[in-house]
Amino acid sequence: MRPLALIFALILGLLFCLAAPATASSSSSSSSSSSSSSSSSSSSSQHSPQAASDESELICHTPNPDECYPRVFVPTHDFQPVHDDQQLPNGLHVRLNIWTGQKEAKINVPDEVNPDVEGLPVDQAVVLVDQEQPETIQIPKGAPKYDNVGKIKEPAQEGDAQTEAIAFAETFNMLKTGKSPSAEEFDNGLEGLEELSHDIYYGLKITEDADVVKALFCLMGARDGDASEGATPRDQQAAAILAGALSNNPSALAEIAKIWPELLDSSCPRDGGPISDRFYQDTVSVADSPAKVKAAVSAINGLIKDGAIRKQFLENSGMKQLLSVLCQEKPEWAGAQRKVAQLVLDTFLDEDMGAQLGQWPRGKASNNGVCAAPETALDDGCWDYHADRMVKLHGTPWSKELKQRLGDARKANSKLPDHGEL
C-alpha cells in the first residue's frame, strides 16, 4: 500500500503548485485595480477646479426641483433662454427677443449662417436691389426718349454711404427677425433707421418688406418702457420711421397700400391683438407723450394720402383719436395740435395743398352743449367747437384757418346727411 500512498501524495502536491500562481495573479490584479482606482480618485480630487462646484450649483426660486436651473448657463448648439440671475460664460452667441425682452444664448459658431435671415436681400450687410441689366439695350426705332424722373437709385456704396447701408441692413434684420444682440443695439439701430428713412431709397426699402412694416406698426402701438435708458421710446421711434419713409415718397406709400388689408388683419407678437384695433382706436392717444403723438400724427398723415386707406380711416372713426388731441389745454400739446390741424387742412380742407374736398366733414356742426360733454366731445360734429377753442387758446394762424375752412366745408356739404344719420 505504501507505493500507492506515495503516488497520491505526489499528485496532490503537483495540483497545489499549479493553482498557486493563478491565485497570486488574481490577487495582484485585484490589488492593482484597487490601487489604480484609489490613485485616479486621489488625482481627480487634487486637480478638480473650483469652477466645477459653481457649475453644478443650482438656483431654485420655488420648492419645485423641476424649476431649478444651473447658476452658470450651460450652452448647447440651440438657442436657450437665459435667466436674469444666471452667469454667462464668455464667447457665446447671445441675442435678445425684441418683443418679450427674453435673452437667449447658444454656442457660438464662427461664420454660421443665421437661418432667420436666410434669403434676405443682403450681401455683406448691404441691401441689394434685384435688377437685370442687359449689356446692350435695343431701343426700337422712333421710341420716345427715356425719362428717368422718379426713378429711385441706390446710393453709391462708398465711405459714409457704405457705413449707412451696413447700419440699415443690421436694423432691418432686427426688425424682420425680432432678434437683437442687445436692447441698446436695437434702440441705437432704430435711431439710425429714423434718420435714413427720410431718404427716398431707404424709405422705399423699409416699406417693401411686409414683416418690417408689421414690426413698425406693432412697435408704434406697443406703448411700453422697454427702450434702454436715455433712448427715444420705441413707439415714438417706430412712428417717426414710418412717417419719414412715407414723406414725399409715393412709391413707399404704394408698397404699404398693397399689403394694407393683410397688415390690419395680422396680430402683434406681444399681445396677439389685431393691428387694426390699435391703428383705428389708439395710434394717437393723449395717454402718450406729446412727442409720440406728433410722430404718430405724421405717420397717419402719410398713410391717408392713399385714397383707399383714407376711406377706411374715416369709416372706422379714425378721426376721433385726432380730435382728442385738440381737447388738450396744456401748452406742451400745442405742437401736436398744430400737426393735427395741418393733417386736416392738407387732406380734407385745403384744395391748394392737394385736399379732395367733399370727403370730410359730413353733416352739420354740433352745438356747444354736445361738444362740452365728455361723452360726446369727440363726435364728428365737434371739430368746429374745438377749433374755436384752439383760436381762443392759441390765436395762431393755423387755428384760425382750421376754424374758417371747417365752417366753409360745412356750408359746402350742407346737402349731405347730418353726421348723426351716417
Report a brief summary of the structure:
The protein is mainly alpha-helical and 422 residues long. 52% of the residues lie in helices and 6% in strands. Residues 24-61 are annotated as: Disordered.
Mind explaining what this structure looks like?
There is one protein chain. By secondary structure, this protein is mostly helical. It has a domain at 165-359: Leucine-rich Repeat Variant. Helix content is 52%, strand content 6%. It contains 16 helices and 8 strands. The protein has helices at residues 2-47, 51-56, 160-177, 183-197, 200-208, 210-220, 234-246, 250-265, 275-282, 290-303, 307-315, 319-326, 334-349, 368-372, 383-393, 397-412; strands spanning 58-59, 69-70, 80-82, 92-97, 103-107, 122-123, 126-127, 179-180. The strands form 3 sheets. A 4-stranded antiparallel β-sheet has the order 3-5-4-8. A hairpin with a 5-residue loop joins strand 4 (92-97) and strand 5. Helix 3 (160-177) crosses helix 4 (183-197), helix 3 crosses helix 6 (210-220) and helix 4 runs parallel beside helix 7. The chain starts with a helix and ends in a 10-residue tail after the last helix.
